[in-house]
Amino acid sequence: MTTPAAGWLTGSLARAHPLTASARSITFTVPGWPGNDAGQHVDVRLTSSDGYQAVRSYSIASAGPGGEIELGIDRLPDGEVSPFLVDDLALGDTVELRGPLGGWFVWRPEQTQPVQLIAGGSGVVPFIAMTRTHASVCSSAPMQLLYSLRTPNDAFFRDELSQPSATARTTWHYTRTVPPGWSRSAGRLTAEDLKSKTLPPEQAPLTYVCGPTGFVETVSRALTSLGHAPDTIRTERFGGT
Amino acid sequence: MAVFGGRRRDDNPALPPGQHLTESFPVLSAGPSPSISTEDWEFFIHTETGQTHRWNWDQFLALPSEDITVDIHCVTSWSKLGTGWKGVSLDTLFAEVETGLDFVMAHSYGGYTTNLPLEEVLDGQAWIAYEYDGGELEPEHGGPARLLVPHLYFWKSAKWVRGLVMQSEDNPGFWEEYGYNLHGDPWREERYS
């Protein structure tokens, strides 16, 4: 596990681009950042001119050594921090960062067992770090992603995930609107979908599930009903504000 | 340069440093929520003499219960004030337990563990809760019963709790092994190790 740097570090926004109409990729240069494992997260602290502070935790889309980290932030309608990061933060602006945090929901290059990733919405961010790491180390461990989205326009990192050079195959699933000619109608992931689109228990995969609480509850329950042992399923949930 | 205004101004004295208020009830757990029927449920306290005190669901519900209204604080920085629970005080459960050890490891269905000093779960500081907000405790929030230790970060309030094992030292539990603080006092911001 990459252990956190002591205290708060200063990150300067180096690059940014929109991911969707409501989400943005932001990459910070962070002097002193110790690097991070794929799947770890970071606390972001903002301070207003009168000293008021707000802290939120975000998954990191990048991994490995180096003094940069990339986040993929979705603007929450009633959020306090995410609208600022998505809409206002300008290149060169600074925030405070603490981390990397968390040593459980991670994938490390030395892992050899098959890996199934299952993302709901912006829950794909830690999996971007995992698929990038998987590609960069030429891992021989099978890895694939099932990505559940409301509509085709909601995909984060679609181009990257669809690249021919991607070593982890992505299967797309849509809950509200499907692309033209899509074979399955829009709807929530069912146990049947999971059975046909994810690695079966016989292959003894480690399955990672990340998304909103309801999504994670439904998917992880369906996975256990399909015969996956609970201790082979790792979950990360987000909810609240 | 963009200037962060901030909207919430949670200068509520009930809010520990670095925390913000939430009205919802976010979930933090490491794996699937186990499904435990109350027919199979039991709670135990295991001591250094090898003695195990056990309660099944009916015996547990027959114990004196308390209505508890407390603030809860998650390490991921949300706090929820004035949450209402019903449960059995650990003082009640420890009434007949004799131990010379100073620490406990809470064990949950599903394999989760978390460590606590014994003196921080006695004297009205901790409960095994089985109702939340007037209704039964949902599985995703730790039902049928969870540990409730509101003065520490909420990962210490083990969901799906099944028992406590006395230990001589403050050995780390699950999240504590993964970099969370051994103790977890929100007022001292003991988030990470």
Give a description of the structure:
The complex is a heterodimer of chains A (241) and B (193). Chain A is of the alpha/beta class and 241 residues long. Chain A folds into two domains: 9-101, Translation factors (Elongation Factor Tu (Ef-tu), domain 3, Beta Barrel); 115-238, 3-Layer(aba) Sandwich (Rossmann fold), CATH 3.40.50.80. Chain A has helices spanning 82-88, 125-136, 158-162, 191-197, 213-225; strands at residues 9-18, 23-29, 41-47, 53-59, 68-74, 94-101, 115-120, 143-149, 169-174, 206-212, 233-238. Chain A has a six-stranded antiparallel β-sheet with strand order 4-3-6-1-2-5. In chain A, strands 9-8-7-10-11 form a five-stranded parallel β-sheet, sandwiched between helices. By secondary structure, chain B is mainly beta. Chain B has one domain (38-188): Alpha-Beta Complex (Sulfite Oxidase, Chain A, domain 2). Helix content of chain B is 7%, strand content 32%. Chain B has three helices and eleven strands, in the order E-E-E-H-E-E-H-E-E-E-E-E-E-H. The radius of gyration of chain B is 17 Å and the shape is globular. Chain A binds chain B through residues 1, 3-4, 43, 46-49, 52-57, 80, 84, 88-90, 92-93, 101-105, 213, 216-217, 220-221, 223-224, 230-231, 233-235, 237-241, and chain B through 1-9, 18, 20, 22-35, 76-78, 110-111, 140, 174-175, 177-179, 192.
Draw up the topology in text.
The complex is a heterodimer of chains A (241) and B (193).
Chain A: E1 9-18, E2 23-29, E3 41-47, E4 53-59, E5 68-74, H1 82-88, E6 94-101, E7 115-120, H2 125-136, E8 143-149, H3 158-162, E9 169-174, H4 191-197, E10 206-212, H5 213-225, E11 233-238
Parallel strand pairs in A: 7-8, 7-10, 8-9, 10-11
Antiparallel strand pairs in A: 1-2, 1-6, 2-5, 3-4, 3-6
Chain B: E1 20-21, E2 42-46, E3 52-56, H1 57-61, E4 66-73, E5 78-89, H2 90-93, E6 103-108, E7 113-117, E8 127-132, E9 135-136, E10 146-148, E11 161-167, H3 174-177
Parallel strand pairs in B: 1-5, 2-11
Antiparallel strand pairs in B: 2-3, 4-5, 5-8, 6-7, 6-11, 8-9, 8-10
